[in-house]
Amino acid sequence: MINNFNKKAVVILSGGMDSTLSSYIAKNSGYELIAVHFNYGQRTQERELKAFRDICEKLNVLNKYEIDIPFFTQIGASALTDKTIDVPTSGIEKGIVPITYVPFRNGIFLSIASAIAEKEEASAIYIGVVEEDSSGYPDCSDNFIQDMNKAINEGTKEDTKIRIITPLVHLSKTQIVEESIKLNVPLNLTWSCYKEEIEACGVCDSCRLRLNGFKNANAIDPIKYKEIN
């Protein structure tokens, strides 16, 4: 049971639409937010960092961490962290993990967030993973999150009790757009594009998923795109 006297939550906030909605849900659930952002050598690192800072300002988050993880670029194997690999623009193939997958990224993010949660005496970690309407990343599944949660509580102090909360895990992108609009989430401040930092490309997997969500929700995306298919 969450102790209401010390109701703090670490929110993993990339600056994208999903993590921003997840953070707003955490705040509306009565948590004091501790926002965590990761600079891991991704192509749109500077734009995502700006989105993180803008959203923290909107949420009045005072306690925030900007964590640098340089080793992802050394590992490579992902179009997000290796600029010699092109970001695909041909759409998502079902059953195939795309080249934009960063090996075990969410596992590493959750491990670091857990260390912060233990230090800050937070009882929850919010992460905006989406299982059914994502790009097919294995570290976005409900089973993975449950197993990570068990490992985290095994590997922390006995009086540390952390619950990983995934409010979006079973939602579609359309439902995420609808819920964001309902909660007045500042979607104009968010950034989802894998390729570009000034105007979203409109053709990478992340842009396609986002635009499709807005289309199906009969809503207009407030950010600018270079092109829309």
From TrEMBL:
Its cofactor is Zn(2+). It comes from the Bacteria. Binds 1 zinc ion per subunit. GO terms for biological process: tRNA queuosine(34) biosynthetic process. It holds the Pfam family QueC. Keywords: ATP-binding, Ligase, Metal-binding, Nucleotide-binding, Queuosine biosynthesis, Zinc. It is an enzyme of class 6 (ligase). ATP binds at L13, S14, G15, G16, M17, D18, S19, T20, L21, S22, S23. Pathway: Purine metabolism; 7-cyano-7-deazaguanine biosynthesis. It catalyses: 7-carboxy-7-carbaguanine + NH4(+) + 2 ATP = 7-cyano-7-carbaguanine + 2 AMP + 2 diphosphate + 2 H(+). The keyword Metal-binding applies. GO terms for molecular function: ATP binding; ligase activity, forming carbon-nitrogen bonds; zinc ion binding. Belongs to the QueC family. This is 7-cyano-7-deazaguanine synthase. It comes from Aliarcobacter cibarius. The lineage of its organism: Bacteria, Pseudomonadati, Campylobacterota, Epsilonproteobacteria, Campylobacterales.
